[in-house]
Amino acid sequence: MFIKDLRLLLDETSASIQTLNRICREQQGDWRQEVVRMRRRVSDEMSRISVLVASCNEPSPSLIAFRNALSKLRSAVAHLQASWPAVSLDPDNLSYRDSVKHVRIELEALAAALVLCEQDGSGR
After folding, report:
1. How does pLDDT run across 1-52, given as a tens digit for each residue?
2. By the 8 A CB rule, do 103 and 77 touch?
3. For the stretch 29-63, what's the b/e string if a residue is b when 16 or more beta carbons lie within 10 angstroms of its beta carbon?
4. Would you say 56 and 63 are in contact if contact means Cβ atoms under 8 Å apart?
5. Rounded to whole angstroms, how far apart are CA atoms 17 and 110?
6. How many CB atoms lie within 10 A of CB 13?
7. Which residues lie below 8 Å from residue 90, measured CB to CB, with a gap of 6+?
8. CA atoms of 101 and 27, how far apart (whole Å)
9. C-alpha neighbours within 13 Å on the C-beta side of residue 89
10. Other beta carbons less than 10 A from residue 78's beta carbon
11. Hey, what long-range contacts does 43-49 have (CB within 8 A, 24 or more apart)?
12. Nearest to 42 by CA among 69, 70, 2, 63
């Protein structure tokens, strides 16, 4: 059940990040307010993943790698949000796009780390 819960949370987080990126690209309505709301959601979802991972008393090497990948994703998201507050967010800026790309790369690395956990049955 542990890995299934991790998968569900990661899927939610990935969907939220995709929604956030879409909102920034489309810039419709009160999009900056929506960015703030979605950023909070992503932060909450990543926190829930952290709590679940911390609940495992005997983490396997693959779960430790997952936890490290999660830390890198959280750092990338924090850097993007600190560098680009909603009020000054410019989706056309190359630096902003590089930050978004970095988040995407770290999210993909986290997904790959979860696959390894699924393969070795971590957290059972």
Report:
1. 788 999 999 999 999 999 999 999 999 999 999 999 999 999 999 999 999 9
2. yes
3. eebbebbeebbebbbebbebbeebbeebeebbebb
4. yes
5. 13
6. 24
7. 84, 96
8. 19
9. 24
10. 13
11. 43/77, 45/9, 45/12, 45/13, 45/16, 46/13, 46/70, 46/73, 46/74, 46/77, 48/9, 49/6, 49/9, 49/10, 49/13
12. 70
Task: Name the packing angle between helices 31-54 and 2-26 (round to 10°).
Answer: 160
- Does this model's pTM top 0.90? My answer is yes
Question: Exposed, middle or buried: residue 73 (CB in 10 Å: 0-12, 13-18, 19+)?
Answer: buried
37/43 Cα distance (integer angstroms):
10
Tokens at 12, concatenated: 């939610």
